[in-house]
Every structure is written in C-alpha cells, then in structure tokens.
Amino acid sequence: MDITPDTPIVVLTGAGISQESGLPTFRGHGGLWNGHRAEDLATPDAFRRDPALVHDFYNMRRAVLLDEKIKPNAAHLALARLERDWLGDFMLVTQNVDNLHERAGSEKLIHMHGELLKSRCQHCGQISDWVGEMNGESECPNCRARGQLRVNVVWFGEMPLRMDDIYRYLRRCGLFISIGTSGNVYPAAGFFQIVNQNPGAKTVELNLEPSLNADQFSDGHYGPASQTVPAFVDRLLNGVLEP
Ligand code: BJW
Q1: Ligand 1 within 6 A of 97 CB?
Q2: Which of 55, 113, 123, 221 is catalytic?
Q3: Nearest CA to ligand 1 atom 57
Q4: 158 C-beta closer than 6 A to ligand 1
Q5: CA 43 → CA 7, 37, 164, distances in Å?
Q6: Which of 156, 159, 217 to mutate to test the pocket of ligand 1 (most atoms within 8 A of CB)?
Q7: Is 75's C-beta closer than 6 angstroms to any atom of ligand 1?
Q8: Could you read off the pLDDT of 66-87 as tens digits, one per residue?
Q9: Span 6-31, pLDDT tens digits
Q10: Is pTM beyond 0.90 here?
Q11: Which residue, 161, 127, 151, is CA-closest to 41?
Q12: CB-based contact 161:113 (threshold 8 Å)
C-alpha cells in the first residue's frame, strides 16, 4: 500500500517527545530519583512496600508537570496539526502520563499508561482529577474513603488501558509512526510488529537515536523530536507521501 492522503495513521509516543519540554525520559541520564531508578518505583510491589516513597515520587513529578515553564514543544504541536489536517483515520497512542499532547490540541488520544494528573480510588474505582499532593491519608472525592487513593498510572505487571481499541486501530492502519520511545516496554514495543503484518503498511521511527527494534521499521529519522516530527508531518501533509 502506498501512503495516500486517506491512509489510516497510528502514532505512538514515548518520553522522548516531552524531553525538550523539560520532562526527563524514563531511562535517560538523570533518571535517578532519591537514589531509586524510576522503573523500580513504577511497580505495585514498590507501592505495597513503601507507599509514601511512591506517592512522593509522583508528587514530585506532578509538581514539575504543573510548573509554568513546562509547555508542549514543536513536536506535540505538529502532531495536533497532523490530526487536524489528515484526511484519513488518525489515532495518537501515548505511553506518556503527562498532559502535553492535550495541551497542544490533540483530541484523538489514548493514554495507554494512564495520567499523572488523575487519581484512582482502590475502594470505589472512581478516577478523579488530582493536581495536589497525594499521601496515605488522602480522601477519595467520590466515596470519601481515606488512604485508598493511588495515582492513575499503569505500573509493570498491570494491564495497559484501552488495549482493545488500540489493537483495532493498529490492525487497520497503513502508516505507524513511533516517536521518542526506547522500545523497552511491552506491549507498546511490539505494536510495529502488528502493523508490519498489514499488507503494504509502513512503519517509521522518529527518535534521538535508533531504538532497540530500529532495524525492523521500514524507515527511521534520527534527531531531536522538535525537529524530526514537524519536518515529517510537513512532508506527509504536503503530499510527499513516501516517507
Ligand atoms: C528522544 C529525545 C528527543 C530522548 N527527541 N527522542 C513481553 C510481552 C509483553 C509484556 C512483557 C514482555 N516482557 C515483559 C513484559 C512485562 C512488562 C515489560 O514490558 N517489561 C519490560 C521491562 C521487559 N510490561 C508490562 O508489565 C505492561 N503490562 C503488561 O504487559 O500487561 C500484560 C499484557 C500483555 C500483552 C498485551 C497486553 C497486556 C505494563 C507496562 C507499564 C509501563 N509503565 C511505565 C510507568 C508509567 C507511570 C510513570 O510514568 O511513572 O510507563 S514504565 C515507563 O516505561 C513508562 C513509559 O511509558 C514506558 C516506556 O518508556 P519510554 O517512553 O520508551 O521512555 P525511555 O526513557 O525508555 O525512552 C526514551 C526514548 O526517547 C529513548 O529512545 C531516547 O533516545 C529518546 N529521546 N530525548 C527524540 N529530544
């Protein structure tokens, strides 16, 4: 299948797209917090063992995200433009728990690893907006239970969100664009393989450097997302359709 103006597109984003907005990547330099690797805190076991430590990790990240200096960058804005101007189906699946895509104007968006600015009550299941600090005494805005709240993100061993919808989009997509993700974490790291089974479909990686699976993509463009993403979106929208 050649890329035509109505080819269905799925975009997958990871921490790299928000790096130039001032948010650290998960596995990059400076990934240590209080002597802990981020991966070691993003688990149900860590939360059971030391809830205060895990609450504080997310309190810190929530405060950073809410700092007025943190804004969407040119890559987030280019994807909102692509969604608006592309004639075919479009879906943006992000692994990121920040809100920079929606602040850039993206609407067709799935947060498969949840959202930092939401809480989930382990008693009643209610998901609520949450911008302040959270701790072991925090009260659920819905059922008023205390000490049952956690941040609404997906930890290792938990099921990512809206997987049925995501697989439906992947199975009918003709162009898959993976941006700023290292390819370490499944199931997202395997999405390109599903698209590679669609006859004629193309898979493209835009990343600072080749990811773990780079050689299995149809094409790759390497450099900071604020440069590669707007350039790639321009080519698509201007009808230079072979990426
Ligand atoms: C730039 C840049 C710039 C920098 N411009 N680029 C095999 C199959 C299936 C599952 C597994 C499997 N093996 C193991 C598993 C289980 C596990 C897993 O994958 N483990 C691996 C470590 C091996 N997966 C799970 O447990 C998942 N659940 C699950 O599998 O359920 C069962 C299931 C099975 C089958 C189907 C469906 C379900 C859950 C995973 C949850 C991940 N959660 C986290 C934390 C979220 C909350 C939080 O933020 O605290 O999600 S972990 C963390 O990693 C976070 C991220 O979303 C995720 C991915 O990281 P990402 O975005 O790739 O960041 P980095 O830092 O790794 O990479 C950044 C990249 O950007 C780099 O490449 C840089 O070069 C680049 N970059 N600056 C462009 N300026």
Answers
A1: yes
A2: 113
A3: 95
A4: yes
A5: 38, 11, 23
A6: 156
A7: no
A8: 999 999 999 999 999 999 999 9
A9: 999 999 999 999 999 999 998 877 66
A10: yes
A11: 151
A12: yes
Residue with the two structure tokens 């860590």: 46
pLDDT at residue 155 tops 70: yes
Q: Is 220 in the pocket of ligand 1 (CB under 6 A)?
A: no
Tokens at residue 126, please?
């209610």
Distances (CA, A) of 165 to 92, 109, 112, 160, 168: 12, 11, 10, 11, 5
Place of tokens 């956690």: 150
Q: How many CB atoms lie within 10 A of CB 173?
A: 25
Q: Assign 72 to helix, strand or coil.
A: coil
Residue 215, class by beta-carbon neighbours within 10 Å (0-12 exposed, 13-18 middle, 19+ buried)?
A: exposed
- DSSP alpha helices (H): ranges in 1-73? 16-19, 38-41, 44-49, 51-66
The token duo for 28 is 């990059």
Catalytic residue status for 101: no
Tokens standing for residue 104: 């850039």
Can you tell me the distance from the alpha carbon of 61 to that of 34, in angstroms, rounded to the nearest whole number? 13
In eight-state DSSP terms, residue 138 is P
Query: Coil, strand or helix: which one is 135?
Result: coil
Tens digits of residue pLDDT in 110-145: 999 999 999 999 999 999 999 999 999 999 999 999
* Residue tagged 């000490």 (tokens): 147
